[in-house]
From TrEMBL:
GO terms for biological process: transcription initiation at RNA polymerase II promoter. One of its GO terms (cellular component) is transcription factor TFIIA complex. InterPro entries: TFIIA_a-hlx, TFIIA_b-brl. Keywords: Nucleus, Transcription. This is Uncharacterized protein. It is found in: Nucleus. It comes from Tuber borchii (White truffle).
Amino acid sequence: MESVCMALIDVLDELVEAGKISHSLARRIIYNYNVSVQDNIGKCGVEIGMKAKIIDYRFVESVWWFNLKDIAISKGPLQRRAAGTEMVRFEGPLRVIAVGYDATAKTVKARIPGHNMFEPEDRQLWPGLWE
């Protein structure tokens, strides 16, 4: 899933650099992708447990950015994991971007308060998005 998101970001970055789309449109596409992925993961009914060490984090305009290392991911909660349950471990780094929203909201406008705040054209406000 991460490689799909990175490929999307790379393509959008190229389109922005070529002047084919604006920065705000690229951010809106990434936002819609993230909302769609979150909604569909929630529907699959599989619980995933993740444990990691935080390298650093930021909170900007209702968006959390976490850079993690020493990640362990398993199906089901880590504390109740039965013997023999598969677990994936990797050193990282892994970037997790969490946009705060109300999952029970019926519309995107109601889901993220101030979601139209993603309008500035200045890359310096969103440096991690284009790395």
